[in-house]
Design brief:
This protein has 243 residues and is α+β, with helices and mostly antiparallel strands. It has eleven helices and eight strands. It has one domain: Alpha-Beta Complex (DNA primase, PRIM domain). Strand 6 and strand 7 form a beta hairpin.
């Protein structure tokens, strides 16, 4: 939601909530066999976990408290209503996205707290889920070596030991760059940066998947069953289709 001096003309922007959009169909690494644009319960569960990780960083690292969640039909929205961030301009919002997702390689990978920790955790999480065939697309000659040493690299990332990643040679730095790009794509950054973006309204129906967009009181216990419309239940089709 955005506030304007002249709402009817969307002119004279005053402030807007900071929003994160995690769409299950656009996850950079999927835990299922969904093709491009496909949505299933497994990738929606992954999207739920990602948005929870973002909320943890926003609260623990940035001190934000007024966080609201909603199910969008194909993913999740995280809205930040804290007053200090509502007046951030686009460049500042882009910096928040980079921080929360771990989208930039830190200058010092070894720092125990702060952004270095966020980057390491997200990079390790992304690499852990990355299949070898995806590695081969980017590192055709080194994919087998990276896969073979994946556990070592994961441990090095989690501990911030850049020297241990040198077992991959020059590919270690390229791998970090690749992981940083993937980290950024767990969320649609355009939604967060755009101060005039309109999000899907809770209580409406996502026609592509026949699911309700709804506010979530407890993201940890949220179940897709809560978003199945009554007419779908009565029709005997409680499953999730493709968007």
């Amino acid at each position: 939601m955005a506030l304007y001096e002249h709402p009817s003309r969307r002119a004279g922007w005053i402030k807007s909530e900071l929003a994160f959009d995690v769409d299950a169909k656009d996850l950079p690494v999927k835990p299922c066999g969904c093709g491009e644009g496909g949505v299933c319960e497994k990738c929606l569960e992954e999207a739920r976990r990602v948005v929870m990780l973002f909320s943890d960083v926003l609260s623990s690292d940035l001190g934000l408290r007024d966080l609201r969640f909603s199910y969008s039909g194909r993913g999740f929205h995280l809205r930040v209503l804290d007053e200090p961030v509502s007046r951030l301009e686009q460049n500042e919002r882009a910096q928040v996205v980079s921080y929360v997702t771990g989208g930039v390689i830190p200058t010092d990978l070894s720092l125990a707290l702060g952004y270095s920790r966020v980057f390491r955790e997200f990079a390790a999480r992304t690499l852990e889920r990355l299949p070898e065939e995806r590695l081969r697309e980017v590192f055709p000659r080194a994919a087998a070596k990276i896969q073979q040493k994946k556990e070592e690299v994961l441990q090095a990332l989690r501990r911030g030991r850049m020297e241990e990643m040198r077992t991959l040679g020059e590919k270690g730095e390229r791998l970090l760059e690749f992981l940083a790009r993937l980290n950024s794509s767990w969320v649609d950054g355009r939604v967060t940066v755009d101060v005039k973006r309109i999000l899907r309204l809770p209580s409406t129906l996502h026609s592509g998947v026949s699911m309700k967009c709804m506010y979530i009181k407890d993201i940890e216990s949220f179940s897709l069953d809560q978003a199945v419309p009554k007419f779908v239940r009565e029709g005997g089709n409680g499953g999730l289709g493709k968007a």
